[in-house]
Amino acid sequence: MRHEDVEGRSGRRRGQTTHPSRRLASCTSWVSRLLRIASLRSIGSGTHKLLEMAKYQIVMIRHGESEWNKLNKFCGWHDAMLSEQGVAEAHAAGKALKEANFKFDIAFTSVLTRANKTLDIILNEIGQTNIPISKTWRLNERHYGGLTGLNKAETAQKHGEEQVKIWRRSFDIPPPPMDESNPHYKEIIEDPRYADGPSKAEFPMFESLKLTIARTLPYWNETIVPAMKAGKKILIAAHGNSLRGIVKHLDAMSDEAIMGLNLPTGIPFVYELDENIKPVVSMKFLGDEETVRKAMEAVAAQGKAK
């Protein structure tokens, strides 16, 4: 994997740095651009012409709301279950995909239950439970290290909203590492789902978005893209940060721009790609723009002190 795949394109001169808080505030225009194309129902004639250039299509979805999303906790690799609302979101996503007549040949997901359950519900709704499913830790959520299990708003009260925003949304600043004092340490490190990987050397105790991308993109490039090029119609059910990494890669987003992208739970989005796996149309949500906007804003507000 080339260095630029992980680092992204920042547009800064070599050696020039930007304070994380300024970078976090600089990406509104990019997110606004994504929202302008966020509704499948509002595709105009210009977009239809673009679709004629598309060779591949892929659908992605962040899992439905989890119990820890509901409690506003840093979740990461903790295996939280879907909340009642999350189950409803997954059913709604499946109905939307069925209404839009999507068919899939293969699905990819993480090893975490909230993503697996979201995928299962969707496949039941669209009547495609017989397709192969590939599960990998490389599509897991970002590992939140020592923040795992902490309430985001309470953490903001203790450390300040700016620090929590940096931990949540900066590109290359990791959270504090998880150690044995964390009550969720053993449940994660001893989870039998990781017996075949990651290796001891690969197993993270924390991750920045940069590190998350570094372990997600090899799977994208070596497994998902070849399946796409082989003509497979693909659905990915994963997590906010593993999907943000794929989006950053596809749209060649700068390190600054990706900081402002907050993916909502349970709303599928579609990429139309050309023969070089470059976006013809980016991030079309199966939902109206206002619903998507409010859901994104709700995710962004999770780190505010109360």
Automatic annotation (TrEMBL):
<dbReference type="InterPro" id="IPR001345">
    <property type="entry name" value="PG/BPGM_mutase_AS"/>
</dbReference>
<dbReference type="InterPro" id="IPR013078">
    <property type="entry name" value="His_Pase_superF_clade-1"/>
</dbReference>
<dbReference type="Pfam" id="PF00300">
    <property type="entry name" value="His_Phos_1"/>
</dbReference>
<keyword id="KW-0378">Hydrolase</keyword>
<dbReference type="InterPro" id="IPR029033">
    <property type="entry name" value="His_PPase_superfam"/>
</dbReference>
<keyword id="KW-0597">Phosphoprotein</keyword>
<feature type="binding site">
    <location>
        <position position="114"/>
    </location>
    <ligand>
        <name>substrate</name>
    </ligand>
</feature>
<dbReference type="GO" id="GO:0016791">
    <property type="term" value="F:phosphatase activity"/>
</dbReference>
<feature type="binding site">
    <location>
        <begin position="62"/>
        <end position="69"/>
    </location>
    <ligand>
        <name>substrate</name>
    </ligand>
</feature>
<feature type="active site" description="Proton donor/acceptor">
    <location>
        <position position="141"/>
    </location>
</feature>
<dbReference type="InterPro" id="IPR005952">
    <property type="entry name" value="Phosphogly_mut1"/>
</dbReference>
<feature type="active site" description="Tele-phosphohistidine intermediate">
    <location>
        <position position="63"/>
    </location>
</feature>
<feature type="compositionally biased region" description="Basic and acidic residues">
    <location>
        <begin position="1"/>
        <end position="10"/>
    </location>
</feature>
<keyword id="KW-0413">Isomerase</keyword>
<feature type="binding site">
    <location>
        <begin position="141"/>
        <end position="144"/>
    </location>
    <ligand>
        <name>substrate</name>
    </ligand>
</feature>
<feature type="binding site">
    <location>
        <position position="152"/>
    </location>
    <ligand>
        <name>substrate</name>
    </ligand>
</feature>
<feature type="binding site">
    <location>
        <begin position="168"/>
        <end position="169"/>
    </location>
    <ligand>
        <name>substrate</name>
    </ligand>
</feature>
<dbReference type="GO" id="GO:0006096">
    <property type="term" value="P:glycolytic process"/>
</dbReference>
<dbReference type="GO" id="GO:0004082">
    <property type="term" value="F:bisphosphoglycerate mutase activity"/>
</dbReference>
<feature type="region of interest" description="Disordered">
    <location>
        <begin position="1"/>
        <end position="23"/>
    </location>
</feature>
<protein>
    <recommendedName>
        <fullName>Phosphoglycerate mutase</fullName>
        <ecNumber>5.4.2.11</ecNumber>
        <ecNumber>5.4.2.4</ecNumber>
    </recommendedName>
</protein>
<feature type="binding site">
    <location>
        <begin position="240"/>
        <end position="241"/>
    </location>
    <ligand>
        <name>substrate</name>
    </ligand>
</feature>
<comment type="similarity">
    <text>Belongs to the phosphoglycerate mutase family. BPG-dependent PGAM subfamily.</text>
</comment>
<keyword id="KW-0324">Glycolysis</keyword>
<feature type="compositionally biased region" description="Basic residues">
    <location>
        <begin position="11"/>
        <end position="22"/>
    </location>
</feature>
<dbReference type="GO" id="GO:0004619">
    <property type="term" value="F:phosphoglycerate mutase activity"/>
</dbReference>
<feature type="site" description="Transition state stabilizer">
    <location>
        <position position="239"/>
    </location>
</feature>
